[in-house]
């Protein structure tokens, strides 16, 4: 009898938690809106469909930057437009939609490899008080450190913090609220580069546990459940729950399907359980062409399915698209650059687009500079002097 009571209570608790789950649309991807590489990166914990690690990769997996050899700078900017075609409320014949019709996001990140570990630092701003994706205004920072354990395995630990503010005044739906909040959470991850497996090449596995700490809990307006009727005030937002999802586990695998030397096709797939109250699937595909001497071209696309968002009508089922080009820059004429071994550096520039929640379109631009060229030659070790 006691076992049945405990089981019933547990099921009731789970059901009530699921019912209370009401983050804003896009809340789980708050840190991935400010760069074209993140928008089409399929939230890949394993480094993407065609392996490429940049400073902003640590917001998906803190372990990814461990094998980076060069100082890297990462800049990104995203513009968001919300057409607001759908009517969000109809009160006594007055129809309309609350929220702004434009938003923006930016990021500045840097990775500084050392002989002991690889630190990464990022600052992001996300200003998206949109009618269909009410993320408010956010300033966020990330500090991350990663370390290779073997030549195939790495681990990472990061901290993300920041603040939120937003003010909503709408007499029609009886909303006159200002809210602010802060977050500070730890993130951890592991990465394993397996190598070739069956007919797949460059197979990589990864897992993370994110958002361990204090998250947003006082952002009042509005979640994926939208608005609900109130007999006194008319219409009002359903109470927003904690976001992003606390203690969110994510696991993924990425691989190259075809590699001809100058042309690659790769894929990635990830599964996440935000706050243990949702389920999200991410699929990615990438194409890379390096047959030209002066540049390498890459196309990336990603598709995401968030089960709870889809159930509440927040649809984002159209795949994203990002095109980027990577080329070498000769900086040997600058004595200071050449002295540091930066006679040549790599610059990657990209532009991306993603449809977010019916009427929202995001247009993103970014650039990543890696100083110097990657050392692909193993060190030569001489055990004794062979001269006689």
What does this structure look like?
This protein is globular. A hairpin with a 3-residue loop joins β17 and β18. Strands 1-4-5-6-7-8-9-12-13-14-15-16-17-18 form a 14-stranded antiparallel beta barrel. Strands 2-3 form a two-stranded antiparallel sheet. Strands 10-11 form a two-stranded antiparallel sheet. The protein has 388 residues and is mainly β.
Features:
4 helices, 9% helix, 388 residues
First and last CA, distance:
88 Å
Number of helices: 4
Strand arrangement, major sheet: 1-4-5-6-7-8-9-12-13-14-15-16-17-18
- Which structural category do the helix and sheet elements fall into? mainly beta
Strand content: over 45%
**Strand tally, please?**
18
Major sheet description:
14 strands, antiparallel, barrel
Relative helix content: under 10%
Radius of gyration: 23 Å
Please specify the SSE layout and strand pairing:
Blueprint: H1 2-20, H2 36-39, E1 72-82, E2 89-91, E3 94-96, E4 102-111, E5 118-129, E6 134-148, E7 153-170, E8 175-197, E9 200-214, E10 227-230, E11 234-237, E12 248-259, E13 263-272, E14 280-289, E15 296-306, H3 307-311, E16 321-330, H4 335-339, E17 344-356, E18 360-370
Antiparallel strand pairs: 1-4, 1-18, 2-3, 4-5, 5-6, 6-7, 7-8, 8-9, 9-12, 10-11, 12-13, 13-14, 14-15, 15-16, 16-17, 17-18
């Amino acid at each position: 009898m006691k076992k049945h009571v405990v089981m019933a209570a547990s099921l009731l608790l789970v059901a009530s938690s699921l019912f209370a789950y009401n983050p804003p649309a896009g809340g789980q991807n708050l840190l991935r809106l400010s760069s074209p590489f993140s928008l089409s990166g399929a939230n890949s914990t394993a480094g993407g469909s065609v392996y490429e690690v940049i400073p902003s990769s640590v917001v998906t997996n803190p372990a990814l930057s461990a094998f980076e050899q060069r100082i890297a700078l990462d800049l990104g900017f995203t513009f968001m437009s919300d057409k607001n075609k759908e009517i969000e409320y109809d009160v006594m014949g007055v129809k309309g939609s609350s929220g702004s019709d434009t938003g923006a996001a930016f990021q500045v990140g840097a990775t500084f490899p050392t002989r002991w570990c690889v630190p990464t630092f990022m600052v992001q701003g996300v200003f998206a008080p949109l009618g269909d994706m009410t993320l408010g205004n956010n300033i966020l920072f990330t500090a991350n450190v990663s370390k290779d354990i073997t030549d195939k395995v790495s681990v990472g630990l990061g901290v993300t913090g920041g603040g939120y503010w937003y003010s909503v005044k709408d007499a029609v739906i009886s909303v006159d609220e200002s809210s602010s909040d802060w977050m500070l959470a730890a993130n951890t991850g592991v990465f394993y580069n397996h190598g070739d497996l069956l007919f797949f090449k460059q197979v990589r596995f990864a897992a993370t546990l994110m958002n361990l700490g204090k998250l947003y809990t006082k952002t009042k307006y509005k979640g994926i459940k939208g608005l609900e009727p109130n007999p006194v005030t008319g219409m009002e937002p359903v109470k927003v729950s904690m976001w992003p999802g606390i203690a969110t586990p994510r696991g993924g695998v990425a691989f190259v399907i075809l590699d001809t030397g100058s042309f690659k096709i790769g894929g990635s797939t990830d599964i996440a359980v935000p706050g243990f109250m949702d389920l999200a699937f991410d699929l990615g595909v990438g194409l890379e062409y390096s047959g030209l001497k002066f540049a390498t071209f890459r196309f990336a696309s990603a598709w995401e399915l968030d089960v709870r968002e889809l159930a509440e009508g927040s649809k984002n089922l159209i795949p994203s698209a990002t095109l980027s080009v990577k080329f070498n820059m000769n900086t040997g004429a600058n004595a200071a650059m050449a002295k540091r071994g930066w006679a040549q550096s790599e610059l990657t520039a990209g532009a991306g687009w993603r449809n977010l929640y019916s009427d929202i379109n995001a247009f993103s631009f970014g650039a990543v500079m890696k100083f110097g060229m990657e050392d692909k030659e193993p060190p030569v070790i001489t055990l004794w002097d062979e001269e006689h």
